[in-house]
């Protein structure tokens, strides 16, 4: 008798109606914003034990995010889950997969055996308060606020220019379109909530910072910095520092003092810049990233 496969694929609403869904996983699934996202999960006799969130962007990259792992799930079942997730990505015609934060060492071992080893780690960096920060006496006239509707074309050109030779996940850059990146940064936000500051002199753009408000708890709000980039031939001239200072100034005006961002651990210039601006790595955490082009796998 053929054994029933424990792997199933549902949408968020379908899985929330599953009678065997663990309450902890139900809370995790409820927090997923995109209703079109596919949920690939283990459906064992005792209920849903583990799942992978799968979504595809306009650039043909499938992102796979594992839920918090549970002890006691047999290794062969976990391997079946990852095999099914990668197979789903291939069935969608994906050009690459981006796996964010395999939760435990055992998951990383399985992925490595499947040809998807860890490529880098992401450092969560933040600044809790602007206390002690002394703003410039005069606003920097070289920094202006841009808006997606009126500046869309210029913003996409600037993102493309500042991505050149970037150290943040260089494996993925050839697959990313500036339009898709910009949309992902402002997703589920109104244009008024998004903060985009552009550094320019004599009508020449030098750099850009993109941030959106984020609620960290019931009382404290802050900005998440999605992107900070400077054109290659304008680097090491203080533009990134001036962009961050301008963001601090605007945040103070809006009574926001907390900031957070993620940085690739290989991007030492960015890490050093943020540290000079008062940011610190949160509890020395490092989130593993697997980025793999599917045409390189067997």
Supply database-style keywords:
elongated; 298 residues; Aminopeptidase; alpha+beta
Question: How far apart lie the N and C ends?
Answer: 30 Å
Q: If helices are DSSP runs of H or I spanning 4 or more residues, what is the number of helices? A: 8
Q: Which class best fits the helix and strand makeup? A: alpha+beta
CATH structural fold name of the largest domain: Aminopeptidase
CATH level 1 class label of the largest domain:
Alpha Beta
CATH H-level superfamily of the largest domain:
Gcn5-related N-acetyltransferase (GNAT)
Please indicate the percent range of residues in DSSP E strands (runs of 2 or more): 25-35%
Helix share of residues? Answer: 25-40%
Number of domains: 2
The count of strands amounts to: 13
What's the overall geometry?
elongated
Low-pLDDT segments, ≥5 res:
none
The rounded Rg comes to 21 Å
Order of helices and strands: EHHEEEHEHEEHHEEEHEHEE
Summarize the structure.
With 298 residues, the protein is of the alpha+beta class.
């Amino acid at each position: 008798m053929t054994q029933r496969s424990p792997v199933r694929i549902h949408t968020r609403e379908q899985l929330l109606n599953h009678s065997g869904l663990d309450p902890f996983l139900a809370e995790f699934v409820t927090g997923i914003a995109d209703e079109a996202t596919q949920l690939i999960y283990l459906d064992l006799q005792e209920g849903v034990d583990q799942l992978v969130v799968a979504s595809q962007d306009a650039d043909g990259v499938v992102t796979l995010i594992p839920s918090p792992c549970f002890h006691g799930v047999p290794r062969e079942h976990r391997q079946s889950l990852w095999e099914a997730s990668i197979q789903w990505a291939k069935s969608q015609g994906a050009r690459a997969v981006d796996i964010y934060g395999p939760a435990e060492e055992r998951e990383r071992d399985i992925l490595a055996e499947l040809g998807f080893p860890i490529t880098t780690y992401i450092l969560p960096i933040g600044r809790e308060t602007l206390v002690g920060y002394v703003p410039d006496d005069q606003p920097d006239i070289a920094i202006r606020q841009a808006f997606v509707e009126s500046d869309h074309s210029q913003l996409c050109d600037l993102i493309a220019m500042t991505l050149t030779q970037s150290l943040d996940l260089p494996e993925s850059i050839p697959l990313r379109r500036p339009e898709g990146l910009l949309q992902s940064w402002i997703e589920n936000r109104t244009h008024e909530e998004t903060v985009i500051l552009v550094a320019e002199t004599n009508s020449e753009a030098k750099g850009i910072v993109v941030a959106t408000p984020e609620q960290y708890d019931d009382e404290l709000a802050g900005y998440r910095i999605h992107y900070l980039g400077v054109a290659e031939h304008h680097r090491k001239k203080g533009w990134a520092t001036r962009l961050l200072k301008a963001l601090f100034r605007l945040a103070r005006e809006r009574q926001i003092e907390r900031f957070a961002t993620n940085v690739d651990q290989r991007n030492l210039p960015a890490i050093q810049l943020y540290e000079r601006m008062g940011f610190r790595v949160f509890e020395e955490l490092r989130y593993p990233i697997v980025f793999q082009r599917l045409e390189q796998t067997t």
